[in-house]
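User: Can you predict the 3D structure for this chain?
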Amino acid sequence: MALRREPTARQMRLAVELRKLRDAAGLTTRDAAALLGVSSAQISQIEAGLAGVSEKRLRRLAANYACSDAELIDALVTMATDRTRGWWEEYRGVLPSAYQDLAELDHHATSRHDVTVIHVPGLFQTADYARALFAYMNPEFPEGEVELRVEHRMKRKVVIEGPDPIPYETVIHEAALRIRVAGRTASQAQLARILEMSEADHVTVQVIPFALDDFAGAGSTLVHLGGTVPRLDTVVRDAPHGTAFLDSEAQLEHFRTLFRRVKEASLPPEQSRDLIHQLAKEL
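Assistant: Here is the predicted structure, written as structure tokens:
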């Protein structure tokens, strides 16, 4: 079977988890290869995300790595054997791979938590708001390139607006609600959209008001995606070199704690809706 040229974030995550299990067992790639009767190069390819692994081989490795976490093993098997080709595949080779990786992670997530400071969360953005953002950040893009990105962002909303939405909690700084990214009319429509979504049973919206004392988290924009088991959670961060997917246990626990702290410091949902209503009237 040909090696993958560009593994997806989900494929890379499976590879990383298998490498973690092997390292925890104190085994080398040569040891793992001997367990499966393959070459150490094949193990290296699997652990680099360049090659897949069958359910049978994955379970054999897990058993020999003395992994007794049945839920984790089942989740890894699902990752290894899932052949879903979602709507995002039509954008592969058209948009940067991070767009497809984010959409695929959303699709498989069991929950999502966002903290945004400057911009409205992507899953809440109207087309006009997203269009203004993409056009500003990429002034050299022709209109068609901007529209592709807007179209992709609108389709990603299926995870909270579709027939089987996931639980979604977001904390938005008042700054993001006040900045008129796309003009007054578009801003009014954007606030109305947030208020509409805040009424959904699976959605929780909280606001960090300007009046909050001792808030040092102004740069703490983050996305936390729940995995099938907590160990498979993912944190997404914007980095200078592009989108970063964080998955170490220490990083995940750090950002879970950070989200809890920001959430506790924010206005409760009802007061948050009152503030958004007030801001809409002021436009």
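The CA atoms of residues 199 and 209 lie 20 Å apart. The chain is about 50% helix and 10% strand.
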